[in-house]
Amino acid sequence: MTILLFQLVFVSGAAWADAFEPGGTFTDEDGSVFEGAIEAIAADGITFGCNPPANYLFCVDDPVTRGQMSGFLVRALVLPPATTDFFTDDSGSVFEGAVNSLADAGITRGCNPPENTMFCPDRTLNRGEMAVFMARAFHLPGSSLDHFDDDNGNVYEGAINSMADAGITLGCNPPANTNFCPGSSITRGQMAAFLTRAPELGLTLMTPPPPTRVPVLSIINGETINVSLDGMNQLVRLIGIETPEVADPCFEEATEALSAVVADRTVRIDTDVSDRDSLDQLLRFVFLTDGTFVNAEMVEAGRATAANVPPDSEFAGLFVLLEDQAQAAERGMWDTGGCDILP
Question: Do 235 and 323 sit in the same domain of this protein?
């Protein structure tokens, strides 16, 4: 699996499909109507994901906060750092730098007019506010048209019509699209679509090849499953983790824990570097259809330990972190009471 956290290179069209492994950048946007837009903003460095430090999720349906919006726009426009601290309520926020850059560029004035001493970084962004951010960020000209029925007299009406003129928004009630819904929240997937349509960015929708999905036939142990792939039964060894052997304490609990997560389900399997191990088992990261990372889930539950075997080390740091957390919380095998109860 190729998840690019820091070095994001923009490629377009067929070149994208050739450059990236099946499934693309994130594991929770496969088949989403917004997948092409999400991949486009990831390739352009506008988003890194929603679950740092691993960032294998995008959280397509989560609402966008004002802080997140500042991050998207600062990366999209490559705005320089600001030397002024404009607001009193963003100190310590991961978005503080982006918020100040946005204010320095005149894209935001604050959230508590007329004082505007606050930005409200954790507040959910509504579509009207988003329209203003987009109109200022991309210098959209004023519009002489009234595109929607539900924004008349709204403080954001001018920005909304400018967005519609630029083709960035079509409306919120397809197929009629007579409304904009200025007070409604925006999902991260929708925001990806808006950014991709911004003419100034020149982004292209990029849909990667579909991921490999396989039905799970049986559970061998806490780190190995039997799947059907291309008409053949194949053993899949979960990369980067290790569970107790058959004669060891907690073996049954680990096996049952993995079974509870993947038994009789269809899963996505992604490679790292190596295709197979010395036992001819496929080496894979395993994900559920909702993006749940099964390898990580086992470590987090205290049913597996981190086992870094280079060169297959993409998530080695994440697994060590999750093991430390499970041990500190005395989950699973780290429970001083033993392995009698599943977490």
Answer: yes
Q: Domain for residue 339, yes or no?
A: no
Beta-carbon contacts of 52 under 8 Å, excluding residues fewer than 6 positions away, are none
Query: Is there a single domain that holds both residue 178 and residue 250?
Result: no
The helix/strand/coil state of 267 is: strand
Spatial distance between the Cα atoms of 156 and 131, rounded to a whole number of angstroms: 7
Is position 206 within any domain? no
Contact (Cβ atoms closer than 8 angstroms) between residue 133 and residue 73? yes
Q: What is the pLDDT of residues 172-226, one digit of tens each?
A: 999 999 999 999 999 999 999 999 999 999 999 998 899 999 999 999 999 999 9
Return all residues near 72 (Cβ < 8 A) that are at least 6 apart: 41, 46, 47, 64, 191, 195
Given a cut of 70, is residue 62 above it in pLDDT? yes
Asked if the structure places residue 3 within a domain, the reply is no
Coil vs helix vs strand at 232: strand
3-state secondary structure (DSSP) of residue 192: helix
pLDDT of residue 22: 79
**Global pTM?**
0.86
